[in-house]
Prior knowledge:
Layout: E1 2-10, H1 27-39, E2 46-47, E3 56-66, H2 72-80, E4 87-95, E5 106-116, E6 129-131, H3 137-145, E7 149-152, E8 167-178, E9 181-188, H4 195-208, H5 215-222, E10 237-244, E11 251-255, E12 259-264, H6 268-271, E13 273-281, H7 283-299, E14 304-309, E15 321-322, E16 325-326, E17 328-339, H8 348-356, H9 359-364, E18 366-369, H10 375-386, H11 397-404, E19 409-416, E20 419-429, E21 432-440, H12 449-463, E22 468-474, H13 478-486, E23 490-502
Amino acid sequence: MKRVKMVLAYDGTNYCGWQLQTNGITIEEVLNKTLSELLREPVTVIGASRTDSGVHAEGNVAVFDTENRMPADKICFALNQRLPEDIRVLSSEEVPLDWHPRKQNCVKTYEYRILNRKIDMPTLRLYSHFCYFPLNEHQMRKAASYLMGEHDFKSFCTVRGQAEDTVRTIYRTDVVREHDMITIRIRGSGFLYNMVRIIAGTLMKVGMGVYPPDHIKEILAARNRKAAGPTAPARGLTLMNLEYETELKEKITGNNEDWEYQLIQTEIPEKKKAYLFIKRCRGEDFDRLLTRVTHQAVRNGARQVYVCDKEDDSRIIPGKAYGYYTFSHGYDMLAMRKRILFGNPENHGETDAKEKGEPGDVFQAVWEKVSIWQASLFCRIYNEIFYMVPNSATLTEQEAREYLVSSRWQLFLIKIREKAVGFVILVEKDEELEIDSLGVLKEYRGRGLAREILRRAEMTAAQMGMKSLFLTVSSINTAAVSLYTDTGFQNEGMISRWYVAESGSDDEELK
């Protein structure tokens, strides 16, 4: 058994869309029949984008499974000899058996063409919409720019079910004119039913002067199909291509008038963990946002999704179903502060070392300020130490380099006999010095090194004239909380609450 991926082009004029229909012939029906005859076995294709009746494609994607031994890359040539002239397979290749064209992250590009002249051109009538009323493409371009970003596009779609999620992300919009042809080009994470055609119909209203360009913002805010323009005819629409992600994005952000969040995915590949920070969100959108982004993280490979609602931590209700997921309390982030007593700080490192009977390592420890060339080494030590620490985050080399070029951040490697055994990150904030994070390699723990790091950080703060040391720690990192309390830090309470949803690998939605 193998799975074959095809890239398809077709003229949709003579077809009732992609999906099988009882009232007419479809692209899917033709492909199923032709492949079954060619490979001499029943074949069912799965399409990435189920285009409507009359819509064209230059780069749709579909897969099918087969037991036939014909090489995957040769199937396109054999298939094209049997297909009608208005359907062509541009390429075919073998992909993993679990590769699904609708469950991969991708960017879709559509074009809508408008023939804008006084008299129609017969040779273009099947591939563009004719509009005799003069259109101002500059105003249309300005209006289209308001669609960019993540929005609820309920006004720009025909909703087919009450539970349908109508949030999508538009990455780029273009409106260009070449002679009499105006082309609207839209790139996005996905599109709703009739979405591009309704956008095209609305932009034409702007081009005619019926709507001002910024009226698009009011249409988006209305979340009502009646607020937008008409649905433009199907013949002007072409699916140009689908670009599939080859690497997981480290961060996904959403920011508009209704919500702002950040999904951190750096730990999904190794730890299967994702972190969602919700900075703000309208109350009526909160449950949908939480459900949607959690599901996105799980589909991207996360087995645990940690969520912090910075605006109101009481909105996440433990045990309540958010789509496929329920949340439980994970941990609290605690703020801890120590006032600087000018003079000699208590020598916690020396006391602890004597108790352990190993004073040598503590007093041989050297702080080495990290250079830009040591960013990779620093990240390796950081990530090795924090791999299993509660609430830890993976540090990327790019992030480390950004810290190193900032005058407020100081990164140090802790070395013993030239070997890097730990680290500390300090951040200057007004009249206090923040210990962003610190750690010691597992084989060097229990020797007083962490206490010595804290002692030297306090000395550094005193030398800088700071009034206090500040740090945050997870409530479930009991060893760290105990260390900080024992060395004079005061617990000032919770600064954020984290909830966690867990998804098993047998979740039907993950297959």
